[in-house]
Design brief:
The chain is of the alpha/beta class and 271 residues long. It is 50% helix and 9% strand. The protein has 13 helices and five strands. The protein has a five-stranded parallel sheet with strand order 2-1-3-4-5, with helices on both faces. Helix 7 runs parallel beside helix 9 and helix 9 runs parallel beside helix 11. It is globular and about 50 Å long.
Length: 271
């Protein structure tokens, strides 16, 4: 009986202690402020579901590596300086450059691809030193602007795009690099998968940017204008259907047309 009474006393002490601890924890928890939730930054709608989705997926890029310097960091580090007689050329731009297999269209040429899909001219300005100047090319071929018109990184006025064009060219000239400015390509809406790309890119704005680029290159800036547009546009003012399956990105036939034009422009720039 005595042992049972001792056991009962021990049990009572245990339960009282446990209740005291739980009560203390509950009081401390109640006194602590609730953790604040950090809202995900909102992305204003562009009016195009596909583009809205693209921009939402790029939040980490826009906030952590706007120019996407990491994309070619290792490739740039591994690239040797050009040989004394090497006519290195950097093709610099967005997805149209990114998907262009230069080794297939310019075999044996010391041409370096530094295109990144989806980029706009503000992003290209951020990475121009790393991906062009530091590679010491003799020529840079710049193809940009279509994603600015679409608003990939937000609304862009024509004068803002033109200012970025001028800044890229001035940086190149200051470092002894000759500039070839390619025209913005036309777009079409002849296929189902081309309709969104076409709706985001005003043909009138493409014409306006190309007119500015052509005048800029002819105004003593020591830049050359590479007119892809005139050879790729149809009688309706749109991209020829057989040159781009999605209305924007050249297919094999499109790049086959562009390659000799680029080669001729490079030859002229190197003279």
């Amino acid at each position: 009986m005595k042992s049972l009474r001792n056991f009962g006393k021990l049990a009572a002490v245990f339960f009282f202690s446990a209740f005291t601890v739980l009560s203390t924890v509950a009081q401390q928890t109640a006194q602590q402020p609730a953790p604040q939730l950090v809202p995900t930054p909102g992305i204003p709608s562009t009016g195009f579901a596909g583009l809205d989705g693209y921009r939402a997926r790029r939040i980490a890029v826009f906030t952590d590596d706007f120019g996407q310097l990491a994309r070619y960091h290792d490739a740039n580090a591994a690239l040797k300086p050009p040989a004394p007689a090497e006519n290195r050329v950097v093709f610099f731009g967005d997805s149209i450059t990114d998907i262009w297999h230069l080794d297939e269209y310019f075999p044996g040429k010391p041409y370096v691809n530094r295109g990144i899909g989806g980029q706009t001219t503000p992003q290209m300005l951020v990475r121009f030193r790393r991906d062009v100047i530091d590679l010491h090319p003799k020529v840079v071929v710049i193809l940009a602007g279509t994603n600015d018109i679409a608003g990939n990184t937000g609304p862009m006025r024509l004068e803002d795009i033109e200012a970025d064009y001028a800044s890229l060219a001035e940086l190149a000239r200051a470092n002894g690099i000759k500039v070839i400015y390619a025209s913005v390509l036309p777009v079409h809406n002849y296929t189902d998968k081309s309709k969104d790309f076409f709706a985001q890119r005003s043909p009138e704005k493409i014409l306006a940017l190309n007119a500015w680029l052509k005048n800029y290159c002819a105004s003593g800036t020591n830049c050359m204008y590479l007119d892809y547009f005139s050879s790729m546009v149809d009688d309706k003012g749109l991209m020829k259907k057989d040159l781009a399956d999605d209305g924007l990105h050249p297919n094999a036939a499109g790049f086959k047309l562009m390659a000799p034009m680029a080669e001729a422009a490079i030859a002229n720039a190197l003279k």
